[in-house]
Design brief:
Number of strands of chain A: 11
Structural class of chain A: mainly beta
Number of helices of chain A: 0
Mean pLDDT of chain A: 92
Oligomer: heterodimer
Shape of chain A: globular
Distance between the termini of chain B: 36 Å
Largest sheet of chain B: 6 strands, mixed
Radius of gyration of chain B: 14 Å
Number of helices of chain B: 0
Distance between the termini of chain A: 35 Å
Helix content of chain A: under 10%
Helix content of chain B: under 10%
Low-confidence stretches of chain A: none
Order of helices and strands of chain A: EEEEEEEEEEE
Strand content of chain A: over 45%
Strand content of chain B: over 45%
């Protein structure tokens, strides 16, 4: 079982607000990822990191930003939330191998 | 053409029967293939992975890979109502630059009828 935690699990926020979705893993994984998934749709990779101070954009363009100051922590920030940002955000991590483990997800609703 | 394609379903299978889920991928350089199960409102959980052509069995689950046909499948034997979920096929490309996260299909919604 993977030890990867996301907070908040559910968030309703007004347009224009700044939000940070937290993701932490206790497995010492070097690689971490953020995926975005709309209901009934496929997951899209929006950010990834290979280690401390390493961040890259994924396949799907996103207005969010990420940081990786510590190995175990990979927060995602939206400076000014919009209704189009309403989605589920899934954090994931892996060691050098292929198996990617997911956190429980953060459901964001922007009103 | 999408990179990973799955029939979105729903696929309805009687309890106790074999459920067969199919996936095709476009990148011939793909090396690793994964099946995840996702219950509604939950995050994906890994069921199986396969790297080599042929079959790989784990309990009631069998993954099948045919790289020549760019095709991967998942068989679920003795289907149970608890198997009702969306099954996501995921593919990892070769490493060597760029994101090495998984590319997911849209998923097949499986319903096991009691």
């Amino acid at each position: 079982e993977a030890d990867i935690y996301q907070t908040p699990r559910y968030l309703v926020i007004g347009t224009g607000k700044k939000i940070t979705l937290e993701c932490s893993q206790t497995m010492g994984h070097d690689k971490m990822y953020w995926y975005q998934q709309d209901p009934g749709m496929e997951l899209h990779l929006i950010h990834y990191s290979y280690g401390v101070n390493s961040t890259e954009k994924g396949d799907l363009s996103s207005e969010s930003t990420v940081s990786r100051i510590r190995t175990e922590h990979f927060p995602l920030t939206l400076e000014s939330a919009r209704p189009s940002h309403t989605s589920q955000y899934l954090c994931a991590s892996t060691w050098a191998g292929d198996t990617i483990y997911f956190g429980e997800g953060s459901w964001l609703t922007v009103v | 053409q999408k990179e990973v394609e799955q029939n979105s379903g729903p696929l309805s299978v009687p309890e106790g029967a074999i459920a067969s889920l199919n996936c095709t991928y476009s990148d011939r350089g793909s090396q690793s293939f994964f099946w995840y199960r996702q219950y509604s409102g939950k995050s994906p959980e890994l069921i199986m992975f396969i790297y080599s052509n042929g079959d790989k069995e784990d309990g009631r689950f069998t993954a099948q890979l045919n790289k020549a046909s760019q095709y991967v499948s998942l068989l679920i034997r003795d289907s149970q109502p608890s198997d009702s979920a969306t099954y996501l096929c995921a593919v990892k490309k070769n490493s060597g630059g760029g994101a090495d996260g998984l590319t997911f299909g849209k998923g097949t919604h499986l319903i096991i009828q009691p």
